[in-house]
Amino acid sequence: MSWEKLNLYDIVILSLRKAMNLGADEAEAYAIRIKDHGITMNNNMITGTETHYEIGIGLRVVVNNKVGYASTNNLSVQSIEKTIMDAISIARASEKDPYWHGLPLPTEYKVPENMYSADLARVSESSLAEKSKELLDLITSDKRLVVVYGSVSASLSSIAIANTNGVSNIQHLTHSIIYVGVVANENGDVTPVISDFSYSRTSIPDVESIVNRVKDYALTSLHPVRIDSMKAPVILHPNAVNSLLRYTLLDAIRGDNVVRGKSYLTGKEGKQVFSEKLTITDNGLLKNGLFTRMFDDEGVAMKNTLIIEKGIVRGFIFDNYWALRYGSSSTGNAIRSSYKDVPRIAPTNVVIKQGDASLDEIIAETRRGLLVYGLQGAHSSNPETGEYSVVATPAWYIENGNIKPVRGVMLSGNIYDDLSKIEFISKEYMQKGHVVAPYIRLEDVNIIVKG
Amino acid sequence: MEDILHKIIEYGLNKEADFVDIRVEDYTLNSIELRDGLVYTASSDKTLGAAVRILYKGSLGFASTSKVDYENLKIAIDSALKFAKALVGSSRPVSIYKVSSRHDVVKYPIERDPRDVDIGVKISDLRELHKIITTMSSHIKTVTLRYMDVTGETIYASSEGRYIEQYSNYTWLYLWVTGREANVMASARHELGTRRGYVLYKKFPQEQIAKIIVNRIENQLKAKTPKGGMFPAILAPEVVGVFTHEAFGHLAEADLTISGSVLRDKLGKKVASDLVTIMDDPTIPDSFGMFKYDDEGIEAIPVTIVENGVLKQLMTDRVYASLIGTKPTGNARAEDYNVPPLIRMRTTYIKPGNMSKEELFEDIKFGYYIVGFRGGQANIDGTFQVGVQEAYEIVNGEIGDPVRNMSISGNTLDTLMLVDGIGKDFEIGYGRCGKGQTVFISDGGPHVRVKKILIGGRL
């Protein structure tokens, strides 16, 4: 029989049955189909178009409490059978994990708003082409600006999952992303690349607003002034908040790191660790969120999980395995980087509760300090300790209400200490990567400039 | 397969394409992750897929498919063409550098095919490594070991009559260890690799790997935060590698150079101290950057990016070679069949000089010896940052106390101008590089002395 014509949901159900027939005690089948269209730009020109059709299936099987995993992008019945047998022989050759307590049980699903749009799923090549042309035209109409790289893309994915505990479902997700990096040149001065992205789950994002943002950041970064090294407050743009937290706090809230004692937050449940101004949730159901969906990559319902409440540690994000090791239940944070990989704990939409000050008010409250849009090298921070040592780029120096660009400025400190003494969080916010972030002012950061 | 690919190319050419190429990948990937001595994942993947590119009136289309047969490749050609047509005339035309026809089959030497090694053996070898690490120090808290081998074949065919088959392996090991003593935490990482199959521990004995990572943990536990500011520094090969790759190499990738990197318009000009020669080399045996043909079927040749301080050559692919009027260097690499190739580095290094380690150190009254990195990143304006996980003070020419939470930064060209000593030793390392897509790379060099470099630390 050929399964090629079947839909993904039927394929995962039939694969489960096969796995049981071939000798698995428990099994889970995960299948994904992605259709992705995009246009890439470099150096003020369109350099290519891309169409991806990706399909794949991953089988997790359990034999005598030992787990094996195998995957393939060939969804013929023979290939899936072979893949199941591979997974079973890996499980047999592997070792028992005393903490393995089975695959997830069924949960009740809620359908979030705006995770799929039929129009975006069918978006035409020519509408992507028009948006790309508009993007290039709007930016290059200012001769000082160069589009270093850019892309406009739209993606549709369907994910089906089933396990032998009775979990089974399929979901369809869409999103479209515009990504652009520009530099500004004027009288021999060149800015660093300033990049930004916008996304939408239901249509191609508006080009004009992203263009206005990068233009503004790039042009105001021209002709920097020199400053001295100092300890001073630093206002992080949501983009910089995302970079810094992604490699520190977002690792610390992961349940596996907490259980292993690898997280800064291990043993701090219920304790006041951060400033009272800080409240953080992980919301997989957030309306319009970039990572919003109905269920995670092991079929558990997405939910809104309280992590930090007024500075007090209230919870962590979990998949099924680590939740059971910890003694709680999955928060719907099992994510696969691809069908080739087992699910791992990852954040969805991490929402930092907005504050009550406007950005302008925070700037006015900052007699002397920095406003930082991007951080270079944030990935080299130490998630276990919170130590960071990064380059702020682009960045602006604030002094008595004047704002001027600066370059080659390093920031160093400890983000966990910084988060314990936050004074200002803005009411403006936006989603950058996994973090829905406001502007946050950190106090007394080491600002180092070559002298 | 060769027949089908020829027919598909024919099909594309009949639709008025100026150029068609196809890349087929067929490989097996095995991976294991051991967390604190328990098997966290053990998995195997088989992938067969193909990518087609088609150039139509100056517009370049790309499409991928996981079904490598005549019907589905035809569909891929049609989708790539349809999208390319929608873009005709919308910006400056793209052209592709064309080369002569060629038929070749390349088999890189594999001592022990990882596909023939039982997964149980790979697990018990990792378990052994775990045991050595945890018995070496009582401060070790968590140990994450990730192992991966990728073995298989790529086929490249083009409308120029190129048909190239390459068989190869990448075997990779990544360690992430954390330690604690009282309230002090430490975290260290290390990465290793080979192209010769399941011979990792023959090349890097487990004892030796464990020593490197445990030493990093122990040092951090007793380390102090460095002073912030400009100081003389000696960079060890691992840091020279990441600096050469991240801080300099990316600036010399032609796509980034002509988009405005600080190297634009600098060919033939001085960009570094006379002592500095920088290569991107596809011929270093057993490196992650070694191959005969790149993912555009182009012969990979060594690129002398900088020779005695002067910028000589950029790294290119077919598109950028054509755009800037030079030859492709074989730097086009794709993460997998799902994505088109981009200009990527291979094995990037600074050429060794003639100083001994002692000579490099002896003149430094106070500075830093920077041994291991945590990560690095550069902006095309030439601002770089390299996070450091292993470093020491240098006091009166001697290696002193360890320091922690340090990073180095500055302007790449300023820093290269300040190089005033190059060692005669040479070492390369193994890593991955992300530029939207992730590929395996190598980098390295000798010990290098810099007159002064910006250290991010306390004030």
In short:
Chain A contains eleven helices and 22 strands.
Tell me what you see in this structure.
- The complex is a heterodimer of chains A (451) and B (459).
- Chain A has 451 residues and is of the alpha+beta class.
- Chain A is 23% helix and 37% strand.
- In chain A, strands 8, 9, 10, 11, 14, 15, 16, 17, 18, 19, 20, 21 and 22 form a 13-stranded mixed β-sheet that branches. In chain A, strands 1, 2, 3, 4, 5, 6 and 7 form a 7-stranded antiparallel β-sheet that branches.
- In chain A, β18 and β19 form a beta hairpin.
- The longest helix of chain A has 17 residues.
- Chain A is globular.
- The mean pLDDT of chain A is 95.
- Chain B is α+β, with helices and mostly antiparallel strands and 459 residues long.
- In chain B, the strands form 4 sheets. In chain B, strands 1, 2, 3, 4, 5, 6 and 7 form a 7-stranded mixed β-sheet that branches.
- In chain B, a hairpin with a 2-residue loop joins β2 and β3.
- In chain B, α1 runs parallel beside α2 and α3 runs parallel beside α5.
- Chain B starts with a helix and ends with a strand.
- In chain B, 59% of the residues are buried.
- The mean pLDDT of chain B is 95.
- Chains A and B meet through β1, β2, β3, α2 and α4 of A and β2, β3, α2, α3 and β7 of B.
- β3 of chain A pairs parallel with β2 of chain B.
